[in-house]
Design a protein that fits this description.
The chain is of the alpha+beta class. The chain is built from seven helices and 13 strands. The strands form four sheets. Strands 7-8-9-10-12-11 form a six-stranded mixed β-sheet, with helices on both faces. The protein has a three-stranded antiparallel β-sheet with strand order 1-2-13, with no helix packed on it. It has a two-stranded antiparallel ribbon with strand order 3-4. Strand 9, helix 5 and strand 10 form a beta-alpha-beta unit. About 25% of the residues are buried. The mean pLDDT is about 90.
């Protein structure tokens, strides 16, 4: 959820995280993930949920929290902040989360990406959607868009998602276009570096480059058309609260509303 503090209006607005606001038009557009809710998850995913049974909601919640923690650690690291596993008697991360974070550090140390943007939120009215890109960087002669994935697999939906992010970035940054996209899978079954040198990977992690992003973006377009059909009047459920209060402020507001 995005928080906007307007000191001049003495208010705080909580934006529904499923939508992004275009500052110029002041209009809201759905996120890539919201649109992809209508895309089939696939047989394997459905079977996995069935196998979990009544525990599926709790397992998915924990997986989401784990992914958030890892994203935050990587974002802090790339922003030059010292990331600490333990502070005093408090564990900031579980052992599993810390091990996946260290896999990312190995990727960073090995391939030395040049950071362009970290956790960049974008929205475009012409495309009709918004999203937050994990990492845009330069590796070799290419501009890469990378997405951190801590789940058991990298699914087709993940690849469609990042292909939409690529289009969003390139639409708004025509002079710095992304040329390659990939998912950094931090739970891969790899045992070490690729001997051919063609794949960026190490023990337990791998950059899965996404092939044919133009085709995948077409699939996103079909999902977007379905989402619009089923949600013709969709709008964010934003919450607005005053950021200060006193008896005098309350009296002034009551008088203004008379």
């Amino acid at each position: 959820m995005k928080i906007i503090h307007r000191d001049d209006l003495s208010q705080i607005t909580f934006l529904d995280e499923r939508y992004y606001m275009d500052e110029q038009s002041q209009m809201f557009y759905p996120s890539v993930n919201t649109i992809l809710d209508v895309y089939p998850k696939g047989y394997g995913y459905i079977q996995w949920l069935k196998d979990l049974g009544s525990n599926s909601e709790e397992v998915m919640k924990r997986a989401g929290e784990q992914g958030t923690h890892i994203h935050e650690a990587i974002q802090a690291f790339l922003s030059g902040v010292e990331v600490k596993w333990i502070e005093g008697e408090k564990d900031n991360y579980t052992l599993e989360e810390w091990m996946m974070f260290l896999k990312f550090v190995e990727f960073y140390k090995t391939f030395k990406p040049e950071t362009i943007k970290v956790e960049k939120s974008l929205v475009n009215g012409e495309l009709g959607f918004g999203g937050t890109l994990d990492y845009v960087c330069k590796i070799g002669g290419d501009i890469w868009l990378l997405d951190w994935k801590s789940g058991g697999s990298v699914y087709k939906g993940n690849k469609i998602q990042i292909s939409a992010y690529k289009e969003l970035w390139n639409k708004l940054n025509p002079d710095l276009k992304i040329t390659k996209i990939g998912c950094v899978h931090l739970r891969a079954a790899t045992r070490g570096a690729d001997k051919t040198g063609k794949v960026m990977q190490g023990e337990g992690w791998k950059v899965e480059e996404v092939d044919n992003p133009d085709h995948l973006f077409k699939l996103f377009g079909y999902a977007q058309a379905i989402w619009k059909e089923e949600n013709p009047y969709a709008k964010p459920k934003n919450m607005i609260y005053p950021d200060r209060m006193s008896i005098d402020i309350l009296k002034k507001r009551e008088e203004a509303n008379k």
